[in-house]
């Protein structure tokens, strides 16, 4: 297994980063980097032509949703990386790396609706339906779920979806994790099928950042772009069940942008038996006030 330290990858016996099992390690993408820029008001006056010359040498593959915030670059040599890091307009340059979806527990089919343990422990029941006994209406709370996509299901109240995986415009879930999470959040209650979600009246928006067959297409830039999209759309809650032991300045900055808009960010914690008191797990442990984990 591996973790990042001072911008480099080091071996460690801690749990894997952004992976599915403890045998998987961080897999950086060769010569691929994420670059974030300082805010306009923080940029010192410089010769813009020199920055333009530097940009001409770079292979920019993607811009963040908010262009001023950053970009991803490929085929970048060490000299250009150091020139970028030393430029006063640049906030950070970090290696891009692959991401992996966490595994889901196997389940046994049931003939009646299942009330998950977490809901029972909070005193909840299956009586809440989309049209049911709660006040309010469907779609009052918009939850944007950053995950592996969704498999169409009558138990889910889906608004729409968008894929951030290049070459994979469909939001269809080819892994299963995303559909599992979306059901846990908002599956309809009281209809006698599947499970009852924690909040059956929410409206779910699917942001697919991971594809089961994506290989190198699955990387952290897609997570950041998905967060920025959710912020731009002024959602109420972002749910992201990925993560790992390596922090990312760009990921943290995106969640800070969500915080400025009052958006709650629900992050996974405890995967692979991790304990945040002893070994940090990100993004859950960035210490931002809008993170719930």
What is Rg? Answer: 20 Å
Oligomer: single chain
* Count of discrete alpha- or pi-helical segments spanning 4 or more residues: 6
Spans where pLDDT lies below 50 across 5 or more residues:
1-24, 129-139
Query: Residue-averaged pLDDT, rounded?
Result: 76
Report the principal-axis shape: elongated
The run of helices and strands is: EEEHEEHEHEEHEHEHEE
Number of strands: 12
Strand order of the largest sheet: 8-9-7-10-11-12
Q: Would you tell me the structural class of the helices and strands?
A: alpha/beta
Query: What's the N-to-C terminus distance?
Result: 24 Å
How many strands, which pairing sense, and closed or not: the largest β-sheet? 6 strands, parallel
Bin the strand percentage.
15-25%
Helix fraction, binned, reads 10-25%
Quick take:
The chain is 20% helix and 22% strand. It has 6 helices and 12 strands. The model is unreliable at 1-24 and 129-139 (pLDDT under 50).
Please describe the topology of this protein:
Layout: E1 2-5, E2 8-11, E3 28-37, H1 48-57, E4 59-63, E5 70-74, H2 78-86, E6 90-97, H3 117-121, E7 142-147, E8 158-163, H4 177-186, E9 203-208, H5 220-232, E10 237-240, H6 249-260, E11 264-267, E12 291-292
Parallel strand pairs: 7-9, 7-10, 8-9, 10-11, 11-12
Antiparallel strand pairs: 1-2, 3-5, 3-6, 4-5
Helix pairs in contact: 5-6
Describe the structure.
The chain has a 6-stranded parallel β-sheet with strand order 8-9-7-10-11-12, with helices on both faces. 20% of the residues lie in helices and 22% in strands. With 293 residues, the protein is α/β, with parallel strands linked by helices. The protein is elongated. The model is unreliable at 1-24 and 129-139 (pLDDT under 50). Helix 5 (220-232) runs parallel beside helix 6.
């Amino acid at each position: 297994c591996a973790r990042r330290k001072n911008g480099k990858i080091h071996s460690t016996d801690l749990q894997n980063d952004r992976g599915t099992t403890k045998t998987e390690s961080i897999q950086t993408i060769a010569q691929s980097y994420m670059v974030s820029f300082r805010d306009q008001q923080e940029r010192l006056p410089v010769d813009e032509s020199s920055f333009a010359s530097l940009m001409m040498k770079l292979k920019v593959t993607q811009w963040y949703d908010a262009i001023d915030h950053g970009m991803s670059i490929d085929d970048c040599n060490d000299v250009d990386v150091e020139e970028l890091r030393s430029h006063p307009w640049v906030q950070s340059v970090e290696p891009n790396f692959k991401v992996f979806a966490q595994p889901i527990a196997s389940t046994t089919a049931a003939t009646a609706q299942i009330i998950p343990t977490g809901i029972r422990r909070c005193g909840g029941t299956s009586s809440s339906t989309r049209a049911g006994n709660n006040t309010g209406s469907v779609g009052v709370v918009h939850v944007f779920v950053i995950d592996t996509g969704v498999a169409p299901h009558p138990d889910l109240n889906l608004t729409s979806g968008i894929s951030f995986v290049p070459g994979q415009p469909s939001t269809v879930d080819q892994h299963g994790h995303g559909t599992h999470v979306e059901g846990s959040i908002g599956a309809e209650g009281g209809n006698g099928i599947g499970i009852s979600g924690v909040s059956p009246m929410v409206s779910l928006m699917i942001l697919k950042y991971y594809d089961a067959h994506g290989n190198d297409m699955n990387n952290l830039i897609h997570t950041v772009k998905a967060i920025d999209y959710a912020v731009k759309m002024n959602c109420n809650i972002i749910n992201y069940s990925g993560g790992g032991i390596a922090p990312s300045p760009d990921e943290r900055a995106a969640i800070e942008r969500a915080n400025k808009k009052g958006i709650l960010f629900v992050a996974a914690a405890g995967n692979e038996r991790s304990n945040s008191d002893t070994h940090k797990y990100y993004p859950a442990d960035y210490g931002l006030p809008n993170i719930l984990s």
